Amino acid sequence: MPVPFRSKLNARKLKQGRPTRWPDFIRDDSVRATPHSRALAQRWIPERGFVLIPNPALSEPEDLLHRNRQLDLIDRNTRLFRDGKPANHALLWGARGTGKSAMVRAMLKRYGGPDLGMIEIAHSSLSELADLMQILSRVDRRYMLFIDDLSFDAHDARYKGLKALLDGSLLSSTHNVVVYATSNRRHLLPESMADNLNGRIVDGELHEGDAIDEKISLSERFGLWLAFHPFTQEQYLDIVSAHLAQAGSSASDTNWHEEALRFARLRGSRSGRVAMQFVQYWQSLNV
């Protein structure tokens, strides 16, 4: 049977699970040319196929503090998608460590099951995205396609393939796939002052240059934008307190407040990731 995508391997090598450029620690029986029909999470590697993720790192939706609006919006979008109703591709953008990836994993925790799974795709595999869409269009299951930390360099042409597939390609939109991407950039592409030089005023209105239009056009193909701004000091301390309580430490002890703020200042960020790192540091002091 021919391989249903443009692979660098022939069908025999793919069936044997012995690629030439990937490590052998992944079991042969975890590699498939079509998705695992009931797997909660899997990774798609163009040279290999679909690789099972046995124990995906999931997040509890209730643990995402101070992100109620974003959680409500993506929860509704995911629920509609699972139920076969119209749903949007989503771009979760904002400061690092503020819960973007955790929120996507929380949707898998809440809605993942026999009818809905997640496929993770690396940034380096986006050039083969059209092949993946063709495979999934033949599958009777819904998938959230997860692209983490999405961004492109100024001369990276792979963004054009993603832009076309989200909206604008001759390929029909795959009804059973929704794209959830996270990024630190709202427009996914680097912007410079030179991009604004082609802007002009016409009848009193500002018309942006072609370079700006091109860079904005990719993010505009995501129908749902969710912004993740840095936490305030109070929110950061609240998150630290919650992590301390989950770790079994006494969150009522206020001695950690000053140390937690110093920890955040040294890292230049009051993020959820830094809060968790502080809790691990604080616990290590009492070992």
TrEMBL record:
<dbReference type="InterPro" id="IPR008533">
    <property type="entry name" value="DUF815"/>
</dbReference>
<protein>
    <submittedName>
        <fullName>ATPase</fullName>
    </submittedName>
</protein>
<dbReference type="InterPro" id="IPR027417">
    <property type="entry name" value="P-loop_NTPase"/>
</dbReference>
<dbReference type="Pfam" id="PF05673">
    <property type="entry name" value="DUF815"/>
</dbReference>
